[in-house]
Sequence to fold (1374 residues):
Amino acid sequence: MADSLQAARLLSVAEAIREGLERALDEIPEAFVMGEGVTDPKGIFGTTTGLMDRFGKERVIETPISENAFTGIAVGACLLGQRPIIVHQRVEFMLLAMEQLINNAAKLRYLTRGRQSVPMVIRLVIGRGWGQGPQHAQSLESVFAAIPGLKVAMPSRAVDARDMLMTGIRGGDPLVLLEHRWLHGVRGPVADDVDPDVLSGPVVRREGEDLTLVATSYMVLEALRAADALAAVGITAEVIDLRVLRPLELAPIGESVRRTGRLVVIDTGHRTLGMGAEVVATISERQLSHLKAPPRRLGLPDRPAASARSLAASFYPRAEEIAREAAEALGMDTEDRLHVERILDERREHRLVDVPDPSFQGPF
Amino acid sequence: MADSLQAARLLSVAEAIREGLERALDEIPEAFVMGEGVTDPKGIFGTTTGLMDRFGKERVIETPISENAFTGIAVGACLLGQRPIIVHQRVEFMLLAMEQLINNAAKLRYLTRGRQSVPMVIRLVIGRGWGQGPQHAQSLESVFAAIPGLKVAMPSRAVDARDMLMTGIRGGDPLVLLEHRWLHGVRGPVADDVDPDVLSGPVVRREGEDLTLVATSYMVLEALRAADALAAVGITAEVIDLRVLRPLELAPIGESVRRTGRLVVIDTGHRTLGMGAEVVATISERQLSHLKAPPRRLGLPDRPAASARSLAASFYPRAEEIAREAAEALGMDTEDRLHVERILDERREHRLVDVPDPSFQGPF
Amino acid sequence: MAKFDRDLAWRGYRALVRIREVELAIAARYPDQEMRCPVHLSVGQEGVAVGACLPLSADDLVLAGHRSHAQYLAKGGDLTAMLAEIHGRETGCCGGRGGSMHLLDVEAGLLASIPIVGSHLPLAVGVALARRQRREPGVAVAFLGDGAVETGAFHETLNFAALHRLPVVFVLEDNGYSVYTPLAERQPPRPLTDVGLSHGVEGQSVSGDDFLEVHAAMETALVAARSGAGPQLLVASTSRWLEHCGPYDDDHLGYRPQGELERAKQRCPIRRLGDQLRKSGELDDRREKALYADVRSEIDAAFAAAFAAPQPSAATAAEHVYG
Amino acid sequence: MAKFDRDLAWRGYRALVRIREVELAIAARYPDQEMRCPVHLSVGQEGVAVGACLPLSADDLVLAGHRSHAQYLAKGGDLTAMLAEIHGRETGCCGGRGGSMHLLDVEAGLLASIPIVGSHLPLAVGVALARRQRREPGVAVAFLGDGAVETGAFHETLNFAALHRLPVVFVLEDNGYSVYTPLAERQPPRPLTDVGLSHGVEGQSVSGDDFLEVHAAMETALVAARSGAGPQLLVASTSRWLEHCGPYDDDHLGYRPQGELERAKQRCPIRRLGDQLRKSGELDDRREKALYADVRSEIDAAFAAAFAAPQPSAATAAEHVYG
Ligand SMILES: Cc1ncc(C[n+]2csc(CCOP(=O)(O)OP(=O)(O)O)c2C)c(N)n1
Ligand SMILES: Cc1ncc(C[n+]2csc(CCOP(=O)(O)OP(=O)(O)O)c2C)c(N)n1
Ligand SMILES: [Mg+2]
Ligand SMILES: [Mg+2]
Fold:
């Protein structure tokens, strides 16, 4: 796998998703794409660009502003063997379709003892920055992950995004794919072959011995930054990308903690009742005796996302806060802490808090 | 408090809720009740009986089957100072109104810096038993509790149900009140005075030194049964009724675990990402050194609720399973375990698994 | 007025009587507490389900709501599998997972019954969309009550179906009530066919007590839907005779105006069609007696088989959550 | 045709010009990246907001969607507070918590702007319900786009409002697009007023480019709503001149038929009313110049004040989650 990635093309997450959609439409006659904006000139952040021209209106379906109905229509199409990929441009729009998702999509397989299934992918985009405000910047992954019968995944890199999409649509279950808006522009190597195990569980993104950092989605990038800085003072942090939130496979995290004895989980969504709660609870149940320090969690605080950028800095955990939690878990001395802080400060290059990188100019 | 309860009337949870509604309508001119069935002859399991006759159609409003709209209409009425109490006869119907709840009700206070508020109560009934099946028996409390800006409470006894309702509607925040269908018929003492602290946090329902059992809603009753049986072998279990799921106040549980060193949390809803995850995670973070044994959780397994009663027994945790977890946490010997099991067996009196007690004859 | 088709009328009559007798048998035995799930009986409303389902071909697929016994049987469902489902048995059409509120049977062409009002309507349109995408014949038929008209799901779905001119027929069973609440307390006064107009869909209004009228209107709707004219709406007036959920008469509760139920029973779809059949010479006392005997012995046997079937084993409880 | 009311026309003209100039100023300055939130500009659509808001009294309350700058100003909102909000300042009408997509100001009578399409419609009906329950005067006015017609929320809400004959006016701004998608690709062909009929509500169709026509229709609707005739629907055709979200022209993307935008600009509500005013002698070059100078200096001052205002302090970030 590592080898094939070496030789691979560099794609942004958005490009990788677009490739996944195109390949799915190509390979699977039952697959179709549906959502508000899938035929737009801007193509859902570039992820659907050109698909309509190639596959036509019957397989790339623009929809009315009817999230509940078209989610249910996708479920209905599954009953005859179709494999829809739908997209809502913000997680919040999906809140209109929770009934279809939770009551129908998640339960029809069980109800029919597997005679029917709902092999659909539901792409949801997590907003952040550029003043999105309270109703356009929620993440809510643990809400989806709380529902048996759904699969829920959050890619942190291009290849996973494509492979989750393609594995999901080839599979037999409804997959909620949460795409972070700040990752769409992030590039990474993408091999030709699809990794069929991408939905099987977490992956170690960086090896380490002193501490285990578990993160999802965009927070994996912040965790890797923190791990980089920690390395400067001789701390090796293992960084695990949780990837699949349901079904949740925590054995690799357990193994890591058995070695490191220290755990910090960083959520993309809210800290309270976030994925970190389940991870920390499970690890505490299973590995209590291996914990050398209390486990720790980071995530969004218990309030809505405000629009003003001056309120964003204290809302989103960054590498700095991750390093600080790590320092607590490790009982690092003051000198080392300051050193790590300085490194992160320098590397941040005065980036603005409400945009992912200087090329991101909004408004979306 | 204990004294006033001694002298109090015995009411069922349904009767207590009805009393709370009547008093709220009486005392608060801005209060009104709205929902499908609030003027029905059966009065939402008896909780709204007679209210329309007394307060008229403008304050007891029957609604079309439009959960999303009337939830939003209630939010809108709050903007002018009204205090609606709405009800959905199953948690599942609320899934149609998640957008209004999560985007509007939970965020308008923050958005307006407190100039506007949404002082409404959303009553949701958790179905169980009598073959309700996959779409009429979900609990989902942790989904609601994951949302900042909401308050979420689950009463386990009549007086709390009434007082949560009345405190909620007098307050300044949207309160999701989850009523378990199997509790509606359960009687308990109800004092005249409303306890204004009922939404402040958990309450110890039985004191003990060997182990802390934390439960919500109907599971509090099962936990108390388990504690009873454990007492027969000399184990004293502290039983804490979590009561308020958001904002979550875990200090009393921390204090208890500091004494007992052992924790079992029993969820009414699913175990994975249930309230137990947050409780166990927080206690592990804060009290790691006090834990004498790994914390444990019980809750519904990761599958839908089937209709057939033969599938119900393995779905809902009972006092038996709670006692078994307690035994594990305590490292109890086989003889004691068998003794506890026997007691529980006897006390269960061959109750059927799909009804709360012999007077419950369904269909609802 | 079309010529009286004796054969069709007889088939309709047989189906009406059979469904009525099944529902009455469920009502009679429900107090035994062996059918341990909520049941929404169709007594009084059979004319709509039978009239709308008899013209269907095997390619046509039905989706229904909480009140779906009549649809299941009219569409050719397996009576024993239905009763077994209501009894929570492994041999039920959902293996006991769903109960009465989730009757569904792919073989019979009842693709879903969903007890969340309005929730099956998008599914039905998804089925119609899939039929078109797969170049398969067949119309999706969605049954709904007058209450479902109040759901946003219905309107969003109708708009989508009309926009894409999908082959779907909405059969609206207007029994005038949602649980205990009459239509006038839930919707402003206007003909229910206006709801179709809102989405550019012309509708037909029929008496659901008149099997032949429903049948004829359904044939018209099916021809239109098959020919690409887009979604069709059939509004059928009908009456529910028993309580909303459960086996009993509940007229004593007083939520209906006095005499309404009695008048409704005068319009009984079975009696109406029976009278026509008698007039035409197709039905006489002997044949009627034979029919009832036949139906009842089938029902008794089905109940016996359902009751005797095994309950689902707890060992299988965790199966089929994921594929 | 009613007599030309010069005073009304002048007030309308002033409001139209002011809103247009504010929006153009936002568009011009947006690339400076000091307004760091999504903005949905109203350029081209001002006729509807101004025509519908000028007849309102202080008791009447407005609720809007994502495109609400024009409504906020037409309803008497505070320009500086609006620009401060878009700049993410503590002095913004939401203290910077909401940004452009959540303009709201209780004093101004804009009770909410909600960027989830259709989500504010139930709120508006809740406001109308509360007015009735509290025996207070005042109508709730809900602005919505042609896209919101596709939401279930709209239909559920209209049904409820019609059932209870609540004092609410729905002002439907039909600009023919939802983002890049034209109406014909989202809804079947039929007049949008038919949507009202579905819920027993008669509607009026007006040209949103004609301030006086909108104003007159709104007065009619308000009289009806106030007199207990129930919800009113106003369908106003209009055109969005700039991109859906953001400051730029996007005609080069080719999602509109060629010439459509140019033709729309010919129907400019400002030019139209200006011509009428000139013909009546109420407007000449001098007065027009003075008006623009006046408006522009107000706008410059407001931008300066908004820019100079403090950003919300991080110390207050956690306030007001609960009461
Ligand atoms: C979304 C939703 N809200 C409420 C209910 C409770 N409920 C079950 S059946 C029913 C009445 C439905 O009325 P109608 O559609 O006319 O069908 P009918 O029962 O008359 O056949 C209601 C309100 C539900 N199942 N789903
Ligand atoms: C429920 C929901 N779905 C999708 C969106 C994304 N969105 C924002 S504005 C818009 C178009 C709305 O069109 P219309 O109602 O006609 O208003 P207009 O923008 O034309 O003024 C869409 C789809 C949203 N905000 N909310
Ligand atoms: Mg009905
Ligand atoms: Mg529009």
